[in-house]
């Protein structure tokens, strides 16, 4: 649902800046459900949909979580 709303937000210049927050939450939901592959794929899709999401704190945060989960290394996440 969050992804669909964010995609609609991207269609309007006034609401487009709010889309990245919804994309961020959607990636967190993938991770909360234990789907790191889905989270990684979704993040790539969201970055394609909203280039302003790239290099934001939220994007860097979820990227580090995904990397930590993939490598099963909590130290990667805690170092960032």
Automatic annotation (TrEMBL):
**Entry annotated with the keyword Protein transport:** yes
Entry keywords, A to Z: Protein transport, Transport
Asked if Repeat is a keyword of the record, the answer is no
SUPFAM superfamilies the UniProt entry points to: TPR-like
GO biological process terms held by the UniProt record: intracellular protein transport; SNARE complex disassembly
Q: Quote one Gene Ontology molecular function term.
A: soluble NSF attachment protein activity
Q: Which PANTHER family has this protein been placed in?
A: ALPHA-SOLUBLE NSF ATTACHMENT PROTEIN (PTHR13768:SF8), SOLUBLE NSF ATTACHMENT PROTEIN SNAP (PTHR13768)
| Family indicated by similarity | Belongs to the SNAP family.
Name of this chain's protein: Uncharacterized protein
Look up and give the organism this protein is from.
Nymphaea colorata (pocket water lily)
């Amino acid at each position: 649902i969050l992804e669909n709303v964010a995609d609609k937000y991207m269609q309007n210049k006034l609401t487009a800046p709010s889309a990245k927050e919804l994309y961020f939450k959607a990636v967190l939901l993938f991770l909360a459900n234990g789907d790191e592959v889905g989270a990684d794929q979704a993040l790539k899709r969201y970055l394609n949909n909203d280039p302003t999401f790239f290099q934001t704190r939220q994007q860097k945060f979820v990227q580090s979580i995904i990397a930590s989960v993939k490598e099963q290394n909590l130290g990667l996440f805690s170092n960032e």
